[in-house]
Design the sequence.
């Protein structure tokens, strides 16, 4: 479920970009190497290449989650599960240390990625996810990701709010990004978009003469979670 707002930048207090730029950024190598893999999953040979933004109070990373395909009786392949861009947020727990074990994930759909890509310096957008929408459990667990410009229009705030009424918890993450960091995010998302839609497979099939040549069923490689809701 997507709800999008666009508005001019407000007069909220600005973030010191010089402080953000000078922050000594670590890598995710430690987090990935020390976190436990999903049960029954061997991650040997898996390629990890997230784009990460580390700041003083929190951090986030972006990585594409590719779609999976199902083979029909006709021999054709159809998308079984759509791909997404996984945005993973972590709280800082010390100098250059982040709480990877208690991370929160927000999966951006193709349309939501389109909203991010088309944002201008003074635009804002907000996305709402609720796995139980239109059911009796609606609102029990909900996530809100907002992207709002700095007051001086030279960057954005990436904010994630996760409300879990079942556990009576509420988490909030806020990571300031510079204009340069956001430009990298937009370019990376633009590149990944046809891949998470499965169109790269389809166009490769066409370029090799039709049929299913060059388009084999994708082996399902489990992400850290099956979806943004599995923990």
Sequence:
């Amino acid at each position: 479920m997507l709800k999008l707002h666009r508005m001019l930048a407000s007069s909220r207090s600005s973030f010191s970009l010089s402080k953000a730029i000078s922050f000594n950024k670590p890598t995710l190598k430690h987090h990935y190497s020390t976190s436990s893999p999903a049960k029954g999953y061997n991650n040997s040979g898996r390629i990890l290449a997230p784009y990460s933004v580390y700041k003083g109070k929190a951090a986030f990373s972006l990585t594409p989650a590719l779609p999976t395909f199902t083979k029909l009786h006709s021999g054709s392949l159809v998308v079984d599960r759509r791909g997404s861009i996984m945005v993973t947020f972590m709280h800082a727990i010390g100098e250059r240390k982040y709480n990877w074990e208690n991370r929160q994930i927000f999966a951006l759909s193709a349309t939501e990625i389109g909203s991010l890509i088309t944002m201008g310096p003074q635009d804002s957008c907000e996305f709402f996810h609720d796995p139980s929408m239109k059911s009796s459990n609606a609102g029990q667990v909900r996530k809100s990701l907002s992207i709002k410009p700095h007051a001086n229009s030279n960057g954005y705030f990436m904010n994630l709010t996760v409300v879990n009424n079942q556990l009576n918890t509420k988490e909030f993450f806020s990571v300031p990004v510079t204009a340069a960091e956001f430009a990298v995010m937009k370019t990376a998302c633009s590149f990944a978009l046809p891949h998470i839609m499965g169109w790269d497979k389809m166009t490769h099939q066409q370029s090799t003469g039709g049929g299913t040549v060059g388009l084999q069923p994708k082996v399902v490689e489990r992400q850290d979670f099956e979806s943004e809701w599995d923990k």
About this structure: The first strand starts at residue 51 and ends at 54. The radius of gyration is 19 Å. The CA atoms of residues 113 and 189 lie 7 Å apart. Helices lie at 17-22, 29-34, 110-117, 179-197, 199-207.
